[in-house]
Amino acid sequence: MQHRPFGSSGVLVPVVGEGTWNMEQDTRAEAIRAIRRGLDLGITHVDTAEMYGSGSVEQLVAEAIAGRRGDVFLVSKVLPNNASRSGTLAACERTLARLKTDYLDCYLLHWPGEHPLEETIRAFEELERAGKIRSFGVSNFDARELEEAVRIAGTGRIACNQVLYHLEERSVEHEVLPACKRLGAPLVAYSPLGSGNFPSSSSHAGRALAAIAEKHGASPRQIALAFLMRDQATFVIPKASRVEHVEDNAKASSVTLDANDIAAIDAAFPRPRRRSGVPML
Fold this sequence. Notes:
This protein is of the alpha/beta class and 281 residues long. It has 10 helices and 9 strands. The protein has helices spanning 28-40, 56-65, 85-99, 117-129, 143-153, 176-183, 204-216, 220-228, 243-250, 259-268; strands spanning 3-5, 12-14, 45-47, 73-78, 106-109, 136-139, 158-164, 187-190, 234-237. The strands form 2 sheets. A 7-stranded parallel β-sheet has the order 3-4-5-6-7-8-9. Helix 3 crosses helix 4 (117-129).
């Protein structure tokens, strides 16, 4: 599994992680097996949130990583309506209890909300000083919002910006990804396989992916992930609640696309026109 530095801390994190959004809807035992298989394959970046299943997914993750906490780069998120200073501190304690751990490797604000960002970041800093989180970042922030977070926290302090990014939703390439690179906050792509809407093999774009996959002895999904990871500032966290899916995802980090591959994918999945804001699910 390929690793890259996660923000200015220099901590090396797998480029392919495990997302857990909606995992409460999956067969619990099978989802736990998938996460554990991912750990075996080097997918040790596990992402969750207090919102997922109203905390039940954090509990599922706790069971999956039991006995292997030291191997895991564990990320969770605070909901915006909980993100006052005191609310963030309390939410983190609840998350730690559900995850059965005494620290998070990274704690994110799930999306911008009504509480002043200064309050949230001050709480993150308190949690960091207390050893309850090791880094902090943001999610669903556009370029301007990310710049404001860096202004408040300081250069190199925002560990990442987690945003929606997949082949058919590339709008973050216009402003958000360049801002992430400029500000030293890696982009973490959630739903990088389109959240259940992966290109059909019968479509023109799907056939283009299949041709490149055949060339590399890979699957179309591995090619899609490799395309997103072509930039050194990008990580991906596809959800995989079945063992065969996590095994497929793990192989994506070993796929290296050449210029012709990238040009073909770029033509099959053109970037949309520049627009303000950031896409969200």
